[in-house]
Amino acid sequence: MDWVETLIVVVHVVIAVALVGLVLIQQGKGADAGAAFGGGASQTVFGSQGSGSFLTRVTAMLAVVFFVTSFSLAVFAKQRAEVAGEAGIPVVEESRQAPAQDAAGNEGSAESEAGSGESELPDLE
C-alpha cells in the first residue's frame, strides 16, 4: 500500500503545479477589450474562439483529479491513524466518572483543600 500512497502524493503534487500554471496562463475577463485592438492574433492556434474554452475544460478536469487525490490521501491518513491506535500507542480518553464524583463531593473536597493548607505540588528548591 505504500507505493500506492506514494504514487497518489506524486500525482497530487504534479496536478497542483499544473493547476497553478493553467490558472496563470488563462486570460482574465477584461482581456476581451484588448483583443479587439489586435491583441488576439496569437490565439489562432486554439481556433476561432481562442484558448478560453480549452483551458477552462482542462482546468476543470485537473481540479476534479486534485479533489479525488485529496480525498484518497485523507482516507490513507485515517487508516494510518487507526493502525497506530491499534498498535498500542496510548490514546487520550475522557473518564466519565470524574463529573459524577465532582457533583457528589464538590463541597467537601473544596473545604478539605482549603482547610489543610497543603498542596499536592512539589516544593521548588
UniProtKB/TrEMBL annotation:
<comment type="function">
    <text>Involved in protein export. Participates in an early event of protein translocation.</text>
</comment>
<keyword id="KW-1003">Cell membrane</keyword>
<dbReference type="GO" id="GO:0015450">
    <property type="term" value="F:protein-transporting ATPase activity"/>
</dbReference>
<dbReference type="GO" id="GO:0005886">
    <property type="term" value="C:plasma membrane"/>
</dbReference>
<feature type="transmembrane region" description="Helical">
    <location>
        <begin position="54"/>
        <end position="76"/>
    </location>
</feature>
<keyword id="KW-0472">Membrane</keyword>
<keyword id="KW-1133">Transmembrane helix</keyword>
<dbReference type="GO" id="GO:0065002">
    <property type="term" value="P:intracellular protein transmembrane transport"/>
</dbReference>
<comment type="similarity">
    <text>Belongs to the SecG family.</text>
</comment>
<keyword id="KW-0813">Transport</keyword>
<dbReference type="GO" id="GO:0009306">
    <property type="term" value="P:protein secretion"/>
</dbReference>
<dbReference type="Pfam" id="PF03840">
    <property type="entry name" value="SecG"/>
</dbReference>
<feature type="region of interest" description="Disordered">
    <location>
        <begin position="95"/>
        <end position="125"/>
    </location>
</feature>
<protein>
    <recommendedName>
        <fullName>Protein-export membrane protein SecG</fullName>
    </recommendedName>
</protein>
<keyword id="KW-0653">Protein transport</keyword>
<dbReference type="InterPro" id="IPR004692">
    <property type="entry name" value="SecG"/>
</dbReference>
<feature type="compositionally biased region" description="Low complexity">
    <location>
        <begin position="103"/>
        <end position="119"/>
    </location>
</feature>
<keyword id="KW-0811">Translocation</keyword>
<dbReference type="GO" id="GO:0043952">
    <property type="term" value="P:protein transport by the Sec complex"/>
</dbReference>
<feature type="transmembrane region" description="Helical">
    <location>
        <begin position="7"/>
        <end position="25"/>
    </location>
</feature>
<keyword id="KW-0812">Transmembrane</keyword>
